[in-house]
Amino acid sequence: MYDKSPITIEEQISKLQNRGMIFNDVSLAHRALSHISYYRMVGYWWPMYEDKENHIFKPNTVFEDVVALYNFDHELRILLFDMIEKIEISLRTKLIYHLSHEFDPWWFQNTDLFQDSLSLIKTLSSIQEEVERSKDTFIKEHNRKYKDDKRFPPAWKTLEMTSFGSLSKLYGNLKNNIKSKDAIAEDYGAVNHTYLPSWLQSMAQIRNYCAHHSRLWNKNLPGAPKLLPKPPNPWLSEVPKQHEFQKLYIHMCLMKYMLNVIQPNNRFTERLALLMSEYRSVDPNALGFKVGWEEEPLWRRL
Questions:
Q1: pLDDT over 70, % of the chain
Q2: Which GO biological-process labels does this protein carry (predicted)?
Q3: Residue 275: is it exposed, middle or buried by C-beta count within 10 angstroms (0-12/13-18/19+)?
Q4: Mean pLDDT throughout 79-85?
Q5: How far apart are CA 154 and CA 122, in angstroms?
Q6: Contact call for residues 299 and 256 (beta carbons, < 8 A)
Q7: Which pLDDT tens digit goes with each residue over 160-195?
Q8: From the CB of residue 193, how many other CB atoms can be counted at a distance below 10 Å?
């Protein structure tokens, strides 16, 4: 039975010191631990343990390095969230445009267009909650003006309220013979519907990590997006190996691949390289980066 009691910040620092962690500035450590909980920091110093069973640190483990890792991870999430926002807005626009023209403004409610009706019902339930929570004027005005119409507002209104997770589920669940499913994938350089659903699923998951301030550094990510054998747009010089999918780098590569279509003159490479240079103590291997990544065709400025 768990019987540990809470300990003060001073006791937290003392415990870490007894386990071998070095503190160059105890006042900084006190301030950090008063704003960032002990167990949020654990994820950053966990790889620094020499003895993980007894929580003994490797020699020369410094608390300030842990804080630097934490700050790096924070800035990386902001950078990724900005990139995913552009992808999310683009995907929303393409779903609205292509499918509303191929079918009608309520295509997302049509079970005949989807592979899994039960999954669609769950997605629509989430969408309904999102729409009902909305305070946007155009939703309120629609509900007032068309109060007798029991359908959702049309796609161009409803999907503006819809999360990236729900958008990716709608796209992935579309039947594979629907023209728009291939058209959207082709727009992004994903060739056809085979590959894009797994990319979007990966990005939606990472977006959730960013939104909930979860650690990305040194995190093993579940799932493995399907990669194109011969991408039509600039990609990596070597095909990634299966074990590389656990780290963030390959997932970031897919985001960059899509971003290069959405915003060809984006500065993501420069912004990422600058972040890496500001935190030279951070090991890029923990994110899956390879030496010379900036020179890959994918990452070069278009």
A1: 100
A2: proteolysis
A3: middle
A4: 96
A5: 19
A6: yes
A7: 999 999 999 999 999 999 999 999 999 999 999 999
A8: 21
Give the three-class secondary structure for 178: coil
Neighbours of 26 (CB within 10 A): 12
| pLDDT recorded at residue 2 | 82
* DSSP sequence for 148-164: T--SPPPHHHHGGG--H
Tell me which residue of 301, 244, 243, 247 sits closest to 272, measured CA to CA. 301
Considering Cα of 232, then 237, then 243, then 247, what sign does the dihedral take?
negative
Nearest to 256 by CA among 233, 279, 238, 274: 233
Burial 150-187 (b: 16+ CB within 10 A, else e): eebbbbebbbbbbbbbbbbbbbbbbeeebebbbbbbeb
SS3 at position 22: strand
Is 130 within 8 Å of 166 (Cβ atoms)?
A: yes
Which residue in this structure is represented by tokens 């890496």? 276
Taking the alpha carbons at both ends of the chain, their separation in whole angstroms is 59
Q: What is the CA radius of gyration of the chain?
A: 23
Q: Is 91 exposed, middle or buried (0-12, 13-18, 19+ CB in 10 A)?
A: buried
What is the pLDDT at residue 302?
62
DSSP annotation string for 192-229:
STTTHHHHHHHHHHHHHHHHTT---TT----------S
- Looking at residue 99, its pLDDT comes to 98
H-type helices in 38-163, by residue range? 38-45, 63-102, 117-133, 137-145, 155-158
Q: What percent of the chain clears pLDDT 90, i.e. is strictly above it?
A: 80
Burial of 73 (0-12, 13-18, 19+ CB in 10 A): buried
